[in-house]
Design brief:
With 110 residues, the protein is mainly α. The protein contains 7 helices and no strands. The protein is elongated. The protein starts with a helix and ends with a helix.
């Protein structure tokens, strides 16, 4: 089943949540679901798991939002989600969420 293929790739970390959404949307109503899946996966690209790329995006987001960074450092844990969203936007929704969270915690000084 095509959905199982997408789920397995997501679980393995080769597709982000955003990529899965884009792939399933592209497949909706397709006559040839297997061909639509292949085309959608190719169009989605790869998950960004490169530490340097993630670090650069995190550093830029922190620099652009110093008040939110200070709020996080002062104990407002909800701000972490704000930064997750900003960095995901910078990386086109393709960042590995676990790697991103780990780098955010490190660079925010948690």
């Amino acid at each position: 089943d095509v959905v199982t293929v997408v789920f397995d790739r997501w679980r393995a970390g080769s597709l982000s949540n955003r990529m899965v959404t884009d792939i399933l949307t592209a497949m909706a109503g397709a006559q040839d679901r297997r061909a639509a899946l292949q085309a959608a996966i190719e169009a989605a690209g790869a998950v960004v798991d490169d530490a340097a790329a993630i670090d650069a995006a995190v550093a830029a987001a922190i620099a652009e939002h110093p008040n939110e960074a200070a709020a996080y450092r002062a104990g407002n844990a909800k701000v972490l989600g704000f930064f997750m969203g900003r960095v995901m936007q910078r990386l086109g929704g393709k960042a590995n969420a676990a790697s991103l969270k780990s780098r955010l915690l490190t660079l925010l000084g948690a």
